[in-house]
Amino acid sequence: MSTKQDEELAQERLIDLAAEFYDQFESGDIPTMEIPTRTKTNIVFDEDSEVWVYGDRTSTRSANSVRGARKLLKAAYTIEFLVDQLEEDRSSTLRELYYLSESWDNEEAQFSGQDESNQLVEDLEIVSQVTREDFHMRPEESGATLMGPLELREQTRRGERAIHCQMDVGEGGYQIPNNPDTIDFLDHEIDFVLCVETGGMRDRLIENGFDDMYDCLIVHLKGQPARATRRITKRLHDELTVPVVVFTDGDPWSYRIYGSVAYGSIKSAHLSEYLATPEARFIGIQPTDIVEYELPTDPLADSDINALESELEDPRFQSDYWTEQIELQLDIEKKAEQQSLASRGLDFVTETYLPERLDDMGVL
Amino acid sequence: MSTKQDEELAQERLIDLAAEFYDQFESGDIPTMEIPTRTKTNIVFDEDSEVWVYGDRTSTRSANSVRGARKLLKAAYTIEFLVDQLEEDRSSTLRELYYLSESWDNEEAQFSGQDESNQLVEDLEIVSQVTREDFHMRPEESGATLMGPLELREQTRRGERAIHCQMDVGEGGYQIPNNPDTIDFLDHEIDFVLCVETGGMRDRLIENGFDDMYDCLIVHLKGQPARATRRITKRLHDELTVPVVVFTDGDPWSYRIYGSVAYGSIKSAHLSEYLATPEARFIGIQPTDIVEYELPTDPLADSDINALESELEDPRFQSDYWTEQIELQLDIEKKAEQQSLASRGLDFVTETYLPERLDDMGVL
């Protein structure tokens, strides 16, 4: 991965944007910036790439009102900040950008709230078609951890680090950096990637040596996964050509976690091709498992039922498999956590459940 | 740290507990278990050790009612499970214990909810005077990360790992394992430990090379710190004899984060001597900083005001320093995040703010 190149592209695209404003001024036009409309109604599920993308509708930010002019002024200041940041090989968080604007010499350019600066950076991502990471904007919280037979090289500010994700790390595993595109995969013996929702289950798999026994890389999702976690999952799939399976609880929120790994989320639809792994398959607790294994359950709450019903309408879940599972769950009115497999003993998940599911899927 | 010894002690204490029930039965007494009353009114601030501890009041669990007998039955089953787990050198999470009880042969011994099993394990911690970690009960979510000039050795299930927390890790740092007592400190050049509340600020300090420039170990707290994070902070302080400072936002919730690192929390008062670092000092955003540096602020919400008022009554905050700061904050009605220091430039925190505060405190 040549991030240097991506960064130069980011810089170039940002300067192009500013140059466009300049040209518009020079030719006597009112400066404008056109971006895809970012509302729910303008998100479509792209059948070919199987991810969420923006539709055809666009909105125009124009300097023909004071409010619009102020927005473009803020964009210009932010572009200057980002270009300088890239020039100096530095980085910052969205929150720092918001606070930093207080030091700008033009009060009109200062952000009035963090929502405004966050949205502007997303707009710039979309218009410039490079990612926030390439602007060197860091998230507030970092990605999760990896454990398995993978050797990688991370390009850090302090030099390169070669790390084997079993031999060179403690039981906590390798901490994914904010921008996983600073990583090169050097060598591996991975047969598949297993993304795991909860820390308790991740630790169970490590303790039972599942990564070692089945040559898999265990990616801890930590609930709804951070961008860095989704990005590295996609890169592992594409670059190492290995299957990805997603192991979650058996409830509608966990199906959404799977959905965001596999198909992207509405909030980051402009990044689906960068973050989503449509080939990822679901190996989480299925409503049929609840019935078959008589797992300990909790009753569905009203919010669970609503979420399941909206998933029945969600293009990401329009398959016979999902329709059947979701309808069964609405019928039995129960949900189960992945750790409920412990009701059949602490080794059931690694000795029986996962091997059987993986075998059924043709992964083993 | 000899964890083997701690585990043997844990096993011994658990068996003693079960033996006590046995003896009570044999001598014709109704079995009972006595534990400190775990309500807010029985928590006292111990002036000598400067941490929260339980007071003198105790409650008795007795088998003289069906309900009481069932509680002791569950305790006996849990003790057997924990002793076996230690015997086999395995571990599990609180959630797994709850689910696992479904496989026990006596239905009366099965837990009716996770609250019940969680509370029983805490009771056993208190009565046996060993920690959950020594029972090999893992938390659901793991600790945070370390970065700085420290070389450590972690005893993992797969052998020993020697790791330098700058040279052998990526930018994400070293991931603290669930039980940090598996770590030995080998070598270090640490002058002080800097615990940081937010990921954004942690990354700022790493990017600016603060750990390198000032020979400090940066501990990411990730909000309210996990037990593992508090435990390793205490061990670093005690074993390396280095000062600990805690860098947080400037609001009542962040003062509580500092309070839990320094003085322990009400929920884990029985563990204060194991987890709390009373010598830890506050280097977070102070209300006087908000005034002095004209930091960007948010207005106090009603819940903030209530929390500040209750801190004025909290024995942990009974010093002139805290009284002055909290009263000032109630007066100005404002709070500020640690990242708001970016309003004075991205390097202000590492070049000016922290060095000045550390110098004032006599740490530098």
Tell me what the structure shows.
Chain A has helices spanning 3-26, 66-87, 94-100, 114-128, 199-207, 210-213, 227-240, 252-263, 272-275, 287-292, 302-313, 320-332, 348-361, and strands spanning 32-36, 43-46, 51-54, 58-62, 92-93, 137-138, 145-147, 150-156, 159-164, 174-175, 183-188, 192-196, 216-220, 244-247, 281-282, 298-299, 334-335. Chain A has 2 domains: 1-138, Arc Repressor Mutant, subunit A (Orthogonal Bundle); 145-361, Dna Topoisomerase Vi A Subunit, Chain: A, domain 2. Chain A has a 6-stranded mixed β-sheet with strand order 10-7-13-12-14-15. In chain A, strands 9-8-11 form a 3-stranded antiparallel β-sheet, with helices on one face. Chain A has a two-stranded antiparallel ribbon with strand order 1-4. The longest helix of chain A has 24 residues, at 3-26. The first copy, chain A, contains 13 helices and 17 strands. Chains A and B meet through β5, α3, β10 and α5 of A and β5, α3, β10 and α5 of B.
